[in-house]
């Protein structure tokens, strides 16, 4: 039987136990391969995220989308402009407050989203190829929980703060 360290690969001993190393390696590999799956969308990955968020929830304003996706509100304006120019979203007055514009996905936007989603799922399948279907689903659930909880994460203490707290 091989140890988990032997299964991981050529990492320095103990490195595979570091969350930061693992997250960085996975994020880098995903970013390198996933960009091509969404490069036909205005804004690439950000455009994809906007389409997913707009399609998934009730109609939302640009500001609410910017806050939800942690995208600068000015950048969100340009992104929605580009998505609208491509015919993927439209803006409409909010029935509750006509000063606010809701961003709504169009039929073309839904079709583009489905094409990009299929391409991303293929990329994800290659990236998660060493996991079985249950492990892959579990990883997705666990990462989603961590991502949602990360909004409440507090910054780490500096080494000086740790020494001060320890009285040294």
UniProtKB/TrEMBL annotation:
Residues 16-148 form the HTH marR-type domain. Keywords: DNA-binding. PROSITE patterns: HTH_MARR_2. One of its GO terms (biological process) is response to stress. It comes from Modestobacter roseus. InterPro entries: HTH_MarR-typ, MarR/SlyA-like, WH-like_DNA-bd_sf, WH_DNA-bd_sf. The lineage of its organism: Bacteria, Bacillati, Actinomycetota, Actinomycetes, Geodermatophilales. Pfam families: MarR_2. GO terms for molecular function: DNA binding; DNA-binding transcription factor activity. It comes from the Bacteria. This is DNA-binding MarR family transcriptional regulator.
């Amino acid at each position: 039987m091989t140890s988990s360290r032997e299964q991981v690969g050529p990492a320095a001993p103990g490195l595979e136990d570091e969350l930061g190393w693992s997250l960085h390696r996975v994020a880098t590999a995903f970013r390198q391969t996933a960009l091509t799956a969404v490069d036909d969308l205005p804004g690439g990955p950000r455009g994809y995220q906007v389409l997913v968020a707009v399609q998934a929830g009730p109609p939302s304003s640009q500001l609410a989308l910017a806050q939800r996706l942690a995208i600068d509100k000015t950048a969100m304006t340009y992104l929605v402009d580009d998505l609208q120019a491509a015919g993927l979203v439209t803006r409409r007055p909010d029935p509750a407050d006509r000063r606010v514009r809701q961003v709504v996905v169009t039929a073309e936007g839904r079709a583009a989203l489905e094409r990009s989603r299929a391409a991303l799922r293929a990329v994800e399948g290659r990236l998660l190829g060493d996991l079985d279907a249950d492990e892959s689903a579990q990883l997705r659930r666990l990462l989603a929980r961590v991502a949602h909880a990360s909004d409440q994460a507090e910054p780490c203490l500096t080494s000086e703060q740790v020494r001060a707290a320890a009285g040294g």
